[in-house]
Amino acid sequence: MISLNQLTKRFGQQIAVNALTLEIPAGQIVGFLGPNGAGKSTTLKMLTGMIEPTEGSATICGFDLKTQPVEVKRNVGFVPESGAVFESLSGLEYLEMIAALYGIPQDAARIRIRQFLTFFDLSFDTLTDKLLGAYSKGMRRKVVITAALLHNPKVVFFDEPLDGLDANAAVGFKALIQTLAREGKTIVYSSHILDVVERVCDRVIIIDKGKLLLDGKPDELVATHNSGTLEHLFTQLTGGQELERRAEDFAKTFRS
Amino acid sequence: MNSRPAELPPVMNPAPPQTQTLRKLFLTIYLRGRSSRGLKLKTAPKSVWQKLAIALLVYTVVGFFFSIGFLSGHQPLFALAISAHSMTFVFLGMFVSTSAGEVLFNKDEADILMHRPISTRDLLWSKIRVMIQISLWLAGALNLGGLLVAFYKGNILFPLVHIFSTVLEALFCTGSVVLTYQLCLRWFGRERLDSFMTMTQMLVAIALVMAGQVLPRLMFQLNEKGWLELTPSHWWFSLLPPVWFAGLDDAVAANGNAGAWLLAALSVVATATVVWLAFGKLADNYLAGLQSVAETVTRPKTRSNSQRRWTEIIATIPPIKWFSPVSRAGFILTTAYLFRDRDVKLRVFPGIAPMLIMPLIFLFRDTRQMEGFGAAFSSGFLATIPLLVLDLLQYSQQWQASDIFRVAPMAGPGQLSQGARRAVLFILAFPAFILIGFIVWVAQHTVSHLLLFLPGLILIPIVSLVPAAMRRGVPLSLPNEEIKSAGRSMKIMIVMFGAMALSGIASWTFNAGVFWWFMLAEVVLALPAYLGLSAWVSRQRWKPLE
Questions:
Q1: What is the chain B residue with the closest CA to A25?
Q2: What is the pLDDT of residues B206-248, one digit of tens each?
Q3: How much is the pTM?
Q4: Which residues of A touch B25 (CB under 8 A)?
Q5: Nearest to residue B286, comparing CAs of B196, B185, B199?
């Protein structure tokens, strides 16, 4: 479903993503992990056609990223980390605008939007009586998730999707992506909340400084490296072993 | 795996074409603004429409004001056409050059739209069509007076041709600005796009303001009857775009001589070329620009580092280092945004360009009847710089970050406003006084006229306190959308008229030999005003957030 071949992105001298080669089949939930600045968001932006790779190639649903970007975009959904929306539109105006960009008729879009409202346990009025700028962070995130799934994409990229969601919505969302994967959709899930990744994902990819560090099933990786948890494995791999001691030292500086 | 058509409900009404959806989106965003501060759906658009209606009314009044001078039967229609097209060119150019960066390359928008199945060309065209649409509303308001004047003078064809030439002019203006971006991208690369865009936009905006102020004065003069007349032609007039479009009006609706037809042909060819280059041949460069906006990687920027050092050094220089910590923080924040933030630079520097240009025009027109009026006028005009800049500095795309000011243990915004005010005085207003003062000294070969700068210099600490006193002095604390206020412009115009009145009085007292009595009176009035305003500002408390 997703195929990366030596995918590379350079910004001048800086290499953000370094010759990433991967195969992700349909129906898999892949946790895409890495410390800040590892190249996760850059990879996701390349795979959604937002930025162009410097070298290498990628195909999604059989469409080439470089030569068939519009076809790729028709088949993917993306929840960006920023959670950006057009704040001066109402929730309904925003979602109907997004639906129209995928050629979904207004009536069909409304039916789909109502389905999402039911899933998130929201009334239709919440989408119509305020502009998005007045929404809470969690509400806005729900709208962004809806906007990513409205057109029923085959591949969905989530960049920190739980940011701002309350506990119930987060539980519901995790159940949703597991169901979507069972229905055959490919989910790429980038997050810093490692216990969620460990519970939800079939496979984990860890990158650092643009390079692939590790790729495998979470429980197998944890067992192979004798780490106990994915979180410990992550800190081992990305140089975070000293964090607890450093935190203690730092906290001591607050003593008056 | 389920296929998309099977899962979607049956199609009832076909979806509108993508370009129509995008045009509707960008027009809504223009009318409502990019961000809203918790506005209800029912009230937000209404208020923006009202603001737009007021702006169109102001444009109409300005257009009528410029057209009244052409009611005389002696003046050729070509003069009216040049005046109308020059004014339109400046206003449209300013609108497009200041809004194009935000419209064409918006980071949030990249996160929302760039992963959707939209072609770059459709995206670009949708934005351009909305910009042209709004330009034409503004142009329509500006040209209404001219059209009525032409109709009054009995030329029925002129309004029709002028509407066509104005549409061409709007296309030319928009295309030129977009083409500038495309060329910046092609020649300097996406890495340096942002800094070049800022500089280009600033220079274009400043050039347009200068052209708008200077050219009409060069091209027109009052005749012995007091009517405006076109000065004898210079060859370089025909290089100016507004003259080409005026040539089109003249060729079809008036003279129809060879020169007019040549200018008309030039207007059509130039517009077609610019449109073809900007929206056709170089449209693919737009994708590179959009991708540059979508990138999140921070690149090393040596220039930015040097600027940072520069602002840090400024903060250590007396008297800035003696300011209170909050005032110094306000000073550094304001200075940093004045020199680093594209959005702020594009508002502030073109905004103060007329403040620097107008004094120069009057300096070189200084008359014997009122000796020193140019210097006095410069002084009064320069004194309004802090008022304008502090007003513009309130607005920012990052206004939500100003919540930190309320979280910090400060009882009110006074110290912060003082820091911003001092930054504007030290970085812009005082250097402007020194610059214009130097020009007065060099141009008029006299030091005595420099005394006429005193009324403005005494006024400036008081004028600069006014925004803070009116609770409008906290920098970067309001969304950009709130800047679209005709009331704001009115207030600034009232202050400018006040400054001009002061200049007139100062100049009169200078010539009447009672200048020092006037100075004494000004100081006696200014001192308590300054102390009162300062105390008022420092006593202010935060207003509760809505």
A1: B1
A2: 676 666 666 666 665 555 555 555 555 566 677 788 888 988 8
A3: 0.76
A4: 86, 89, 97
A5: B185
